[in-house]
Design brief:
The longest helix has 25 residues. With about 675 residues, the protein is of the alpha+beta class. Among the domains are: about 260 residues, 3-Layer(aba) Sandwich (Collagenase (Catalytic Domain)), CATH 3.40.390.10; about 170 residues, Neutral endopeptidase , domain2 (Neutral endopeptidase, domain 2, Orthogonal Bundle). The N terminus is likely disordered. Helix 7 runs parallel beside helix 14 and helix 23 packs antiparallel against helix 25. The strands form 4 sheets. Strands 2-3-5-4 form a 4-stranded mixed sheet. It binds zinc ion.
């Protein structure tokens, strides 16, 4: 109960207190059986009554709330835009002028592909290898990461310090498998992609024949690059991308790229850096050495066109959407322009817009309540670790040491990013986008060579999501997710623990999943397990991996257990520790039945209602291929079918579909 509610209870006995909110009763599919398919039971009625809007790939109360936040941002920006004389360089001037420039569709349309012509001309004019390298750097400055990319990240072996990080990049299709695998869905995507690339070249001024040729050349080069990249499953192993290099060593390895000049351009000191995929950089070296400049020109031009497409005139935006939005993701229509403009404002000026967002929409009591929930979840994780029967005291001590260093962040940063150097004008949208991209890139690279700044956030305040960062051991919950159906100050505890509580538990558990367990209390990639305990841990995680490997989204297409392992461990452990935390809270403040549902039932239904969404088949295919998160259906069914507490709560028989047989039941934490 909030302090306000307690005060109300004490002073006004005559009036009824606002009853605490339970689950969304009307969302439950009463024809579904909780023990057979809890995903259908928990919110099947809501999903049946609320088909996915054409512009969305997933839909549920949670996603609807995310879109609702964009309506709030729109109202905020409309209000800000009423005042025309904000002093130049203030965040109000920046966020409202960015929005205005984006909303000026007729001007954006009139300019066509003109905004990117200077870049395309620069590419065309390249004559020498030095020109090529300069142009690659110019593209990277705009976060158009052709061939490879650069950013900054904590040093795996000294996480208090930030170093530059070179990563593999530069493919137009989602990942390497799309270029290389023989299955029909990949072959179809390749054929469609090649047509799309040619169309885009035409839309930016190439003749039909030139465009076709450019598309062929680009596709061949991307296929060579793809062949040298690791796949999504391999990339889950932090050790696979842990390669610290001296610049001189990298230089010897890739002699056709001048790293000193490149790093200098980004004001990054020529100190040790991490090269995620050294073998891939060998493939880039080969392209630099032997690929004709004409091929590079087509490839770089495509990188510019594809990266800029969403911000150019309507025909280009529409063709871009036809391939990525419609064909690959299954959406049937684009989001309205105002929403895309709000999203852009959040993307480029997120901590400016976010300041105004939290002032208006994020109540301080939500932050206080959330902090209490996080504290209780951390305590429950501690109890869980202490109670494990398969872990030795030595490893438990290390696990608890790690848990003690967790740093929770709630709502918004204590210190906001300083955007004062970003020039935003109300009339030149593309130039604003460029300014935003350059600022973000420079802001990230400026961290390299310095002690880590623990105040920085990886998501903006209005984001409806949460994350864990293993190097800083922090769990982060932006204001945007702290609303129904995840959380509400008026919710019964059972509902908050079942929804946001499981999310908090999930993020905590990431510190102890297949990846997180490899980082120690200081955030170093460093084994803290005894050999015997690590073996037992791997046996337990293999159970979860096998479970998800057998979940199909359609005939012939199933999850890759190893790809979704970390998220699935997170859900399983998250549900368990949220349950324990709720049981504990329940002891001091007894929960009551609401609308005929026991507190225990409310807990699990809240998870099903928060997590269960409807996802388009096309998007599900993209997810099983590249997303470490399982599809929503299995994020509801998977963890709960492993929990005896769930079976008991709903009185499920031992052979029910939602009850995994005892010898197959997974429990990691
Ligand atoms: Zn996660």
């Amino acid at each position: 109960m909030t302090p306000i509610a307690i005060l109300f209870l004490a002073t006004s006995l005559a009036a009824q207190t606002t009853p605490e909110r339970g689950v969304f009763v009307e969302d439950i599919d009463k024809n579904a059986d909780a023990c057979t398919n809890f995903y259908d039971y928990a919110n099947g009625a809501w999903r049946a009554a609320n088909p996915i809007p054409g512009s969305m790939q997933k839909w549920s109360r949670r996603w609807a709330a995310g879109e609702q936040s964009k309506e709030q941002l729109r109202a905020l920006l409309d209000d800000e835009s009423k005042k025309k004389d904000w002093p130049k360089g203030t965040i109000d001037q920046q966020i409202s002028d960015f929005y205005a420039s984006c909303m000026d569709q007729s001007r954006v349309d009139a300019r066509g592909a003109m905004p990117i012509q200077p870049l395309l001309r620069e590419i065309k004019a390249m004559r020498t290898p030095a020109d090529l390298q300069k142009t690659i750097a110019d593209l990277h400055d705009l976060q158009m990461f052709a061939a490879f990319g650069i950013t900054s990240a904590s040093d795996n072996h000294n996480p208090g310090f930030v170093i530059a990080r070179v990563f593999a990049s530069g493919l137009g299709l989602p990942d390497r498998d799309y270029y290389l695998k023989p299955e029909k869905r990949f072959a179809d995507a390749r054929a469609r992609y090649r047509v799309h690339v040619a169309k885009m070249f035409e839309l930016t001024g190439y003749s039909t024949a030139e465009a076709k040729h450019a598309s062929d050349v680009v596709f061949a080069m991307e296929t060579r690059l793809a062949a040298a990249q690791l796949d999504n499953v391999a990339l889950r192993d932090p050790a696979a991308t842990d390669h610290k290099y001296q610049v001189a060593t990298l230089q010897k390895f890739t002699p056709h790229f001048d790293w000193t000049r490149y790093l200098d351009r980004f004001k990054v000191a020529p100190e040790d850096l991490n090269v995620d995929q050294p073998e891939y950089m060998g493939a880039v070296e080969k392209e630099l050495r032997s690929t004709p400049l004409a091929t590079w020109k087509a490839y770089l031009a495509w990188n510019v066109i594809n990266n800029a497409a969403r911000h150019l005139s309507s025909p280009i935006v529409e063709e871009h959407f036809a391939f990525y939005g419609k064909y690959l993701s299954g959406s049937t229509e684009m989001k309205p322009r105002w929403k895309r403009c709000v999203e852009g404002d959040d993307m480029f000026l997120g901590e400016a817009l976010g300041q105004r967002y939290v002032e208006r929409y994020f109540p301080p009591e939500a932050k206080a309540r959330m902090k209490e929930l996080v504290k209780n979840l951390l305590l429950a994780m501690g109890d869980t670790i202490r109670g494990l029967d398969w872990m030795s005291p030595a490893t438990k001590t290390r696990a608890l040491e790690k848990l003690a260093t967790f740093n929770p962040k709630v709502g918004y940063p204590d210190k906001w990013k300083d955007y004062s150097s970003v020039v935003i004008s109300p009339s030149s949208y593309w130039e604003n986008v460029e300014a935003g991209l350059k600022f973000d890139n420079a802001d990230s690279l400026a961290q390299a060579g310095k002690p880590v700044d623990r105040g920085r956030w990886g998501m903006t305040p209005p984001t409806s999501d949460a994350y864990y960062n293993p190097l800083l051991n922090e769990i982060v919950f932006p204001a945007g997710i702290l609303q129904p159906p995840a959380f509400d100050v008026h919710n019964a505890d059972a509902v908050n623990y079942g929804a946001i509580g499981v999310v908090i538990g999930h993020e905590i558990s990431h510190g102890f999943d297949d990846q997180g367990a490899q980082y120690d209390a200081q955030g170093r990639l460093n084994n803290w397990w005894t050999a015997e305990d690590l073996k037992r841990f791997h046996e337990r995680t293999a159970c979860v991996s096998d479970q998800f490997e057998n979940y199909f989204i359609e005939p012939g297409i199933h999850h890759q257990g190893k790809l979704v392992l970390g998220e699935s461990i997170g859900d399983l452990a998250g549900a368990k520790i949220a349950w324990l935390a709720f049981q504990k809270a329940h002891q001091t403040k007894p929960a009551v039945a609401i609308d005929g549902f026991t507190p225990e039932q409310q807990f699990f239904i809240a998870w099903g209602q928060f997590r269960g969404d409807e996802t388009r088949p096309e998007t599900q295919r993209l997810m099983v291929q590249g997303d470490p998160h399982p599809v929503a259906k299995y994020r509801v069914i998977g963890p709960l079918s492993n929990l005896p507490e769930f079976a008991k709560t709903f009185g499920c028989k031992a052979d029910a579909a939602m009850v995994r047989p005892a010898d197959k039941r997974c429990a990691v934490w």
